[in-house]
Design brief:
Helix content: 40-55%
CATH architecture of the domain at 1-96: Alpha Horseshoe
Strand content: 5-15%
Radius of gyration: 20 Å
Structural class: mainly alpha
Order of helices and strands: HHHHHHHHHHHHEEEH
Oligomer: single chain
CATH class of the domain at 1-96: Mainly Alpha
Largest sheet: 3 strands, antiparallel
Shape: globular
Number of strands: 3
CATH topology of the domain at 1-96: Serine Threonine Protein Phosphatase 5, Tetratricopeptide repeat
CATH superfamily of the domain at 1-96: Ankyrin repeat-containing domain
Length: about 250
């Protein structure tokens, strides 16, 4: 296995140039190559949503579960970005759906936190455990309820996710909160007071609005967070489910 970046391979991955990647692999470039920081070519392609390049690297022998820089799993990186096609390619190549990164993060954790319904569906279909807790020992269903994504909640419930009482309480709690104010308060707690903020709204999931708040420095967004607003729908889903009030 190479420990240094082969000439051109990382440049080709950064550029999203599938033809160049294919030529380099055929010329002997190691699909397991890492750059000077220990980042793998596969991880870079995964987080860049370069599904074609991911497929080429996997076909050439890249290990789908090898941690980049000793910490970051390609599947987790793709799940975090909501890159469904990449997630499916990695799972088809044998990536472990419940592989754990640092701090108990897994692909399902990242997908739920981002409200990426199609990724959650793909992971659960591949055997991801709907109840494995994430950071702070939080069940995925509770995280999905906080996120405000009815789609993620539906997928988890369809696969038998537990902690429904806790998820129902969390969804009800958010009904009493102003999402924009909560996001702004979180950013202020992390970065301090005195900054300007800009708020945008979009529809990432039918029937819900995603609220995004960005912190501005010198007029430019430098940090941000977002959350969906499907908490009322989630309350309805959990209240109708016979297991919602389990002990």
């Amino acid at each position: 296995m190479n420990t240094h970046e082969p000439p051109g391979l990382f440049a080709a991955v950064y550029a999203g140039d599938e033809n160049a990647v294919l030529r380099l692999l055929r010329s002997g470039a190691d699909p397991e190559s890492v750059d000077a920081d220990g980042q793998t070519a596969l991880y870079l392609a995964a987080v860049s949503d370069a599904a074609g390049i991911v497929g080429l690297l996997l076909a050439a022998g890249a290990d789908p579960d090898r941690l980049s820089s000793g910490a970051d799993a390609p599947l987790c990186g793709a799940a975090c970005g909501g890159h469904t096609e990449v997630v499916r390619a990695l799972l088809a190549a044998g990536a472990a759906p419940d592989l754990t990164e640092e701090y108990e993060f897994r692909a399902l954790t990242w997908a739920v936190h981002g409200g990426h319904v199609a990724v959650v569906r793909a992971l659960l279909a591949a055997g991801a455990d709907p109840d494995l807790p994430g950071p702070g020992d939080e069940p995925p269903l509770v995280a999905a309820a906080r996120r405000g994504s009815p789609g993620c909640v539906r997928e988890l419930l369809a696969h038998g996710a537990r902690a429904r009482r806790e998820a129902l309480a969390e969804a009800r709690r958010w009904l009493a909160l102003d999402v924009e104010e909560e996001l702004r308060a979180g950013l202020e707690a992390a970065y301090g007071p005195g900054y300007e903020y800009v708020t945008s709204r979009r529809e990432d999931e039918p029937g819900t609005v995603t609220v995004e708040v960005a912190l501005l420095r010198d007029g430019r967004p430098t940090a941000g967070n977002n959350r969906q607003t499907g908490h009322r729908t989630i309350v309805t889903l959990l209240e109708k489910d016979p297991g919602a009030l389990e002990g």
